Amino acid sequence: MQINTPFFKQRAHDALADENLQKALGNLKAGFPEKRAIAVDRMPEFEQLRNQGRDLKNHILEHLDLYLEQFESKVIENGGQVHWARTAEDANKIILDLCKQVDAKTVTKGKSMVTEEIGLNDYLEANGVQPVETDLGEYILQLREDHPSHIIAPAIHLNLEDVSEAFHEHHKRPKSDDPAVLMQEAREVLRDKFVAADVGITGANFCVAETGSTIIVTNEGNGDLTQTLPKTHIVVTSIEKVVPTLEDMTLFLRLLARSATGQEFTVYNTLSTGPRREGDQDGPENFHVVLVDNGRSEMVGSEFQDMLRCIRCSACMNHCPVYGAVGGHSYGWVYPGPMGSVLTPQMIGIEKGGMLPNASTFCGKCESVCPVKIPLPKLMRHWREDEFQKHLQPKAARYGLAGWAFMAKRPVLYKPYTRMASWFMKRLAGKKGRIKKLPLAGGWTDWRDMPAPQGTTFMTAWKEQQKNGEQS
């Protein structure tokens, strides 16, 4: 997937003017947040589970090497293989080699954002292997030569008319706007793909060190067919997905479903533990797990380690006012929303991803709904600091911050300046209490009015409060 993060402002501007996209995003605002709230209200212990999930993830990250080695040992014991990929390029080469070992011509794929991250589809196609997405949303996007804009609802930026048009064009069947008809059409087309595939590639929501198992959760069942019908099953996932035990896994599953879709549990929760054994009626002959690093190990022990707690539920983007206004494609790469604003700069560099940590109102909603309590606003501030230190911000922003810092360090100048600025803005606002145009603030007033300051300055109010406190 091409990296377009430096063009966030232009893409966001275009998204706000896209009526079709705005209609689709309206469905997001009315769906996932409300369902999550209802599911959480039905579980009095949800907050306790969040604390447990946070603490367990912290424990795992402190002993990540131990659990990854235990997981590998168990996979080998079960008859499978684990492959370590430091970079996206390493992962792609490993997967292609595994496909060539069984002379694969087609592979079915299901539920793996990591394969989007490493650009697997394009790599396989360039080397003579045809990937077929089997998740309905991903399949629609593949037909349209499009990319996901959301983690759990990849085609949320599309409307029914878009899907109908894509199916009519590629399936050569009568056009329909009935979701049930379109769903059945997809089933019929994909059924042959499932049967013909030489290799099945899935992601993994979690990897269990205790048993060497991987688990994938879906609501469509495509993951089951992808990993049981082909001769070879390849799991492509990232190193932070490991959990110690099956019991630990169930804790995260309870948090994941409620945070993601508002369900008590997802429909299909499928564990894979090695290749087919004697007496098994189905399953792959070969089982491989490709563990992708791609910058994650550098986050361990850093100020961004908390981001590795993420269980990819999408609650942060479902509740984000910025994502809700401009959609996922505006972020310009695989991971959108608040979690992408932290993760993307780590993977592609702050030089390319610097716009994303700045695309936040810092309202804190993302942190308040995160099932493992990742302090996303704090992490975005770290990236802003890094961007500032590397002189990557626009000159206007740097000069503005430098000017403010100069004044703030000198109370003799700062106090009269803020009083004068407050008086000026109140005069400019007049009786309406808002300002339509303000010098040096066009980035704000071009799109919305600036509210006039209320009351006195903070320092004056603080001094008055201290004085009243001493008198009482």
From TrEMBL:
A Pfam match: Fer4_8
Keywords, sorted A to Z: 4Fe-4S, Electron transport, Iron, Iron-sulfur, Metal-binding, Repeat, Transport
MF (Gene Ontology): 4 iron, 4 sulfur cluster binding; metal ion binding
4Fe-4S ferredoxin-type domain boundaries: 301-331
Domain of life according to the entry: Bacteria
Matching Gene3D superfamilies: Alpha-helical ferredoxin, NagB/RpiA/CoA transferase-like
Keyword Methyltransferase: no
GO terms under biological process: lactate metabolic process
Protein name per UniProt: Iron-sulfur cluster binding protein
Organism: Amphritea japonica ATCC BAA-1530
